Model the fold of this input.
Amino acid sequence: MAESVVLDPVDLRILRLLQNDARITYRDLAVQVGVAPSTCLDRISRLRRSGVILGHQLRLDPTKLGRGLEALLSVQVRPHRRELVGPFVERIRALPESRSVFHLAGPDDYLVHVAVADTADLQRLVLDEFTSRREVARVETRLIFQQWECGPLLPPGAGADDQGRAPGPS
Done:
């Protein structure tokens, strides 16, 4: 397990603001956290080098891309052995419908978030790409009616800023 990184209140404010708007300029970010732009840039560079900041992603609306139906597929793989698991995960990750894949403990081995055009497309995906595979013992499908994003990810105990205020929208 990777070591956690020690973050001070300025780092936490930077991370909170960047998670809410990754396109904010270094100058605007520096003003909001109360440091010089060069200090802000140095801190962000350190957070990247230490692996706290992993990258930047562009979020797309699946509905606008013709994938208006999302589902969670609970998948059991049998036998659950490394030589089957690796190729299975790589195949699922390569599917254009796959949004994320989670390896689980418990009765299901994987939870796969997919986005498809409609129920016929979901049925095709489940039958052709999941249950047709020899290692897949069972698939359960759960439709997603609605999804909400949650607040920024911060270390335990960092739920309030350094003035003791609860984090809110920035």
Remarks:
- Confidence is low (pLDDT under 50) at residues 162-167.
- The helical segments are 9-20, 26-33, 37-49, 82-94, 119-130.
